[in-house]
Amino acid sequence: MVPCAYAFRPMSEDDLPLVGGWLTMPHVVEWWPAGVKQLERVRAHIGDPAIDVFIVTANDRAIGYLQCYDPCAEADHPFRDQPAGTRGIDQFIGNPDMIGRGHGSALTRAFVAKLFAAGTPRVVTDPDPANRRAVGAYEKAGFRTERLVDTPWGRTLLMVCEL
């Protein structure tokens, strides 16, 4: 992989067509199904104080989407049992030519480092256990598997990264 400078630009309404296009890509649809509904969820997150949404760039090129949330902000969130200050993350790489090149683990490491530098004690994520590419990327980024969890969106693998 060519060294990249990753940046996380706060998402705006102007980015919805870009994210909407990514949500139709087969490699994204496989793990983020229901593209139109997903895009409406993303739209609802813009400006929501409990979740931050970003466009991920690599060397100034938009390559993906990332959301960072407070699992304790929702009364029924399955990860409310996490320590105070924990942040959850979910992301995908939208551009197919950026898949399988190490960007997933690298951008995750970069984002988590920013969270730790800001005082976040723990970061969690919950990929589908069958998504071996995502699980491997999180492991390379320093996450460890904690447990399987049945959530409203299906069975997930709770993974944890601590400072």
Describe this entry's structure for a reader.
The chain is of the alpha+beta class and 163 residues long. It has one domain: Gcn5-related N-acetyltransferase (GNAT) (Aminopeptidase). It is built from 5 helices and 7 strands. Strands 1-2-3-4-5-7-6 form a 7-stranded mixed β-sheet, covered by helices on one side. Strand 6 and strand 7 form a beta hairpin. The longest helix is centred in the last third of the chain and has 15 residues. The radius of gyration is 15 Å and the shape is globular.
- Tell me about the largest β-sheet: 7 strands, mixed
CATH superfamily: Gcn5-related N-acetyltransferase (GNAT)
- Beta-strand content estimate: 25-35%
CATH topology assignment: Aminopeptidase
Provide the low-confidence segments as ranges. none
Backbone CA Rg: 15 Å
H/I helix tally: 5
Overall spatial form: globular
Strand order of the largest sheet: 1-2-3-4-5-7-6
SSE order, one letter for each helix or strand: EHHHEEEHEHEE
Helical content, roughly?
25-40%
CATH architecture: 3-Layer(aba) Sandwich
Compute the average pLDDT: 90
What is the distance, rounded to the nearest whole angstrom, between the alpha carbons of the first and last residues? 26 Å
